[in-house]
Amino acid sequence: MQSYEEANTQLTGRCAQRRKVANNTWLERRGGDIAVRLHDTDVVTYHDDGAITLDTGRWFTVTTKDRMNTFSPFQVWSEKGEWFAEHPGYHAPGAIVKAPFRDGMTWLGDHWDGIPTPDEVADERARRKKMRADIKAFIDSITPDEIVKRFNNPQGDCWGCMMFGTDDCLADHVDEHYFHLSLARRAVTDRGYVNPDVILSMILYDAERRNVVSRDLTDALRKFLVKRLITGVAVAA
After folding, report:
1. Strand, coil or helix: what is 224?
2. What pLDDT was estimated at residue 25?
3. What is the DSSP letter of 115?
4. CA 73, CA 227: separation in Å to the nearest integer?
5. What distance separates the 2 farthest-apart alpha carbons in the chain?
6. C-alpha–C-alpha distance, residues 147 and 211, integer Å
7. Is 18 within 8 Å of 28 (Cβ atoms)?
8. Collapsing DSSP states into helix, strand and coil, what is residue 71?
9. Percentage of residues in the chain with pLDDT exceeding 90?
């Protein structure tokens, strides 16, 4: 699939509004636009004026890249953790066809709109490096005693995490080394476990009975925080 016209030909008859095109992937009309939806994210949007928009929904995964590469004219890939997008089929003197990736970047027919500047890329690289180090230090600071205390006495939970699942507070939690039950629950739930409460019980058991910090907790926290906090331009996969 390379264009709005090709996408439009896929939506006809009984499938005029919606058609499954791959696992967990649907081609759907959005008013005058047509989107390739992976799970809950429109990863590729064909606009009726010919523009094409890419968006990961913050899911920087192999599957996201595959859907963008399969259902658009672009090549999307990562180098040393940084994402790029290129229109290999377009050639013109001075045209920027390869660009650092940013959610919402749009191909306007002969160039990209919404791509990061070189200064933004450099700033983002420095920010990501520091944030990764801060996340590691935060996770390394969690002790079995702290897990037991926070799990058994959740009154000290962050209100934003507990009630609203907001991301606005996460950087402060990392900076302040503020670990709490709701943060653990959000991280474990985000990993896609069928029953997060069972995993949380196992984490508490390991802390209480074995005096260890479970890998289920540390791996979930690392992935969750990296996904939520390491965003912007040249985003890490």
Report:
1. helix
2. 98
3. P
4. 27
5. 67
6. 10
7. yes
8. coil
9. 72
